[in-house]
Design brief:
2 copies of one chain form a homodimer. By secondary structure, the first copy, chain A, is mostly helical. The first copy, chain A, has 8 helices and 2 strands, in the order αααααααββα. In chain A, 40% of the residues are buried.
Chain lengths: 174, 174
């Protein structure tokens, strides 16, 4: 399959509801534990997704679509959520993510992006020139990456409990 | 965290709804494509989950809890879904999975399993002795494994579209 704006939005609009369905009212043990030192809990991942809505995806799209002579993106802080969310309950983060994503999809739709716009470019601080279609594709894959990560972090809480079946469960071996 | 029946059910009861939220009314391109030769589509994975509800998890729990002298499990056919589901729309499979899982959770709850029962054993055809708690833990991790797999299969449909960002997206590298 090839990139399509509508098919991208199909994923982007589902992600917050998928996470809500997975995580609402679930025991803290599933969401506050990590995969080990220097890794994220489910709670940390939701914070990271919120920060992306605020500072990464649509702000970068706006830079690409702007008339600015310098279209270099700001760097994205992968650790901002540790300060930003201190003390907030998970459900508050989920609600925040749902609202921010909804607004960003409305904003994205409001641009009425044709192929001409999707081929416009910005400057990524590490990679150089990237297109708007690549940015939106990455937004989609980034969502799916974090759904997979959340599933893995939760699965690992039972690593000791599955006994010999660990041999069949690839998710516990990564 | 350690194994707990209630926390296991928290995951088991959410999985069909998570998949429904992810996949209902989504374009076929996301669910009928695979990761490459000899790999499964999202559609194939849902069929595999249905077959597990019918022949694997609770039937094996019943063997463990039975008075039979021989508690050897039947082998599980990982490819049965290719024949069983021919021609069925994805939504029909999702509905079937939701119903089967609901019934299996009711059946599991009806057993009122105390620790004594959770330590009872069956014979796995490859591993030998396994406990009921290990079987239920594996059921949970197996769900999460397939949610992660579905996310990965979908993400890979955009492997060519993310451009240089592929370097940051681990899910595209596995």
């Amino acid at each position: 399959m090839n990139f399509s704006l509508e098919k991208s939005i199909e994923i982007l609009e589902r992600t917050p509801l998928v996470l809500q369905t997975m995580l609402q009212n679930i025991s803290d043990d599933w969401t506050s534990n990590t995969e080990g030192e220097e890794t994220w809990s489910v709670y940390d991942v939701i914070g990271h997704l919120i920060y992306g809505e605020k500072t990464d995806w649509m702000p970068r799209a706006e830079i690409i679509l702007s008339d600015k002579p310098d279209k270099t993106f700001e760097s994205f802080d992968r650790f901002a959520q540790f300060e930003e969310n201190k003390g907030k309950p998970l459900q508050e983060l989920l609600n925040e993510f749902i609202l921010l994503r909804q607004k960003n999809i409305e904003l994205l739709r409001s641009k009425k992006l044709t192929n001409k716009y999707l081929e416009q470019k910005g400057i990524h601080p590490a990679f150089g020139e990237v297109t708007l279609a690549q940015l939106i594709s990455t937004w989609v894959v980034h969502d799916l990456n974090h759904i997979a990560q959340i599933s893995r972090v939760m699965a690992k809480q039972y690593k000791q409990d599955v006994g010999p079946w660990i041999a069949y469960l690839k998710i516990l071996q990564s």
